[in-house]
Design goal:
The protein is of the alpha/beta class. The protein has helices at residues 10-18, 47-57, 80-88, 100-108, 140-147, 170-187, 192-216, 233-238, 257-269, 284-293, 315-329; strands at 27-28, 40-44, 61-65, 91-94, 113-116, 129-131, 224-227, 242-245, 274-277, 296-299. The strands form 2 sheets. Strands 1-3-2-4-5 form a 5-stranded mixed β-sheet, with helices on both faces. A 5-stranded mixed β-sheet has the order 6-8-7-9-10, sandwiched between helices.
Length: 333
């Protein structure tokens, strides 16, 4: 749809050098590159943003994802080709605070309408422990844990100290969807009515998902679940659970010996039955902890990407699989 001249600006060329861009290529919903179609061209940072763009845009959008299926999104580096796609896109849909390289690239891109999902809902501070009974948003303990888990490269995967994993709370994800819908309507007014209708349909699906979680987790014997990294803080708060994470917000960070010992004690005290791991990150620490305490392991998917190993073909199906896993682990009837 973009009718601007097909060139990469001087700013983008400078970014290629400044960001040390690699040779990764982008994946897209078809073979056309962003900016070279008759549709509204959207570059999405990773799967949860691409899912929104595809559901809300429908037939009017062409979606290119910067993060390939199976690629761990936190550590994404941007290629020169991807920088060019950002320049030529009609819109860039991203979640500031999750992918530092994307944040830098979007900031340098001159062409697209920039839609930051982090600005479309309220972000909170979570650490290795989140949620629970009466846990206030942004408590001091979580704030301290959060800043203790920057990765080895010095990346702090947050948005001014906040947890970016909002898509794992269906209610917050619906808020983001509504904001994205409004942004599409403004940027591409010729198809505003369809974007409005598609947004309403998606929000309805997300509200139904929220209802399934509320009902499915209503009668449980335990509130505590253990995960490899602290992606589920918003989900825990929404449904009155307590997430205990082996690592912080960075899935690649190594837990301390003290943290592993603490988790062993928590597991025994709170009747934890399962240690959850995810498909895009090594399950080594989860299986080590489970073996030490005699627990089972299972997948709790942060839905950062859909692969052949995912328990579903899209966000909604994988979240339903997560609900099934949580019900089993928490003794829900």
């Amino acid at each position: 749809m973009n009718v601007r001249r097909r060139h990469i600006s001087a700013v983008a060329l400078t970014a290629v050098t400044a960001l040390g861009l690699g040779t990764l290529t982008a994946c897209s919903s078809d073979s056309a590159a962003a900016g070279n179609t008759d549709r509204f061209d959207v570059v999405a940072s990773f799967y949860p943003m691409a899912f929104l763009a595809e559901r809300i845009g429908g037939e009017h959008v062409h979606v290119t994802s910067l993060t390939q299926p199976g690629q761990e999104p936190h550590d994404l580096e941007i290629s020169a080709r991807q920088m060019g796609e950002l320049e030529e896109a009609d819109a860039a849909l991203y979640l500031k605070g999750l992918q530092p390289a994307v944040d830098k690239a979007v900031g340098l891109a001159e062409g697209p309408t920039k839609i930051d999902a982090a600005e479309l809902t309220t972000l909170e501070t979570h650490g290795t422990e989140a949620g629970g009974h009466g846990d206030e948003h942004g408590d001091e303990h979580a704030h301290e844990d959060e800043h203790a888990h920057e990765d080895e490269h010095g990346h702090d995967h947050d948005h001014e100290g906040a947890d970016p994993h909002v898509w794992l709370d269906p209610v917050k994800y619906a808020e983001v969807a509504e904001g994205v819908g409004k942004a599409f309507q403004k940027a591409d007014p010729d198809h505003a009515a369809d974007y409005r209708a598609n947004t309403a349909a998606l929000v309805k699906d997300l509200k139904a998902l929220d209802g399934r979680f509320r009902t499915g987790l209503a009668n449980r014997t335990s509130d505590v679940f253990v995960t490899t990294h602290a992606a589920f803080g918003y989900l825990a708060e929404r449904y009155g659970l307590t997430e205990e994470a082996i690592s912080g917000l960075d899935p690649e960070s190594e837990p301390s010996g003290a943290r592993m010992k603490e988790l062993q004690e928590i597991a025994k005290a709170d009747g934890v039955t399962t240690v959850f791991y995810e498909t895009l990150v090594s399950d080594r620490t989860a299986k080590t902890l489970a073996a030490d305490v005699g627990l089972k392991t299972d997948v709790l998917d942060p839905v950062e990407g859909i692969t052949d190993h995912s328990r579903g073909e899209d966000y909604l199906q994988v979240m339903d699989a997560n609900l099934t896993a949580l019900r089993t682990a928490l003794g829900a009837r």
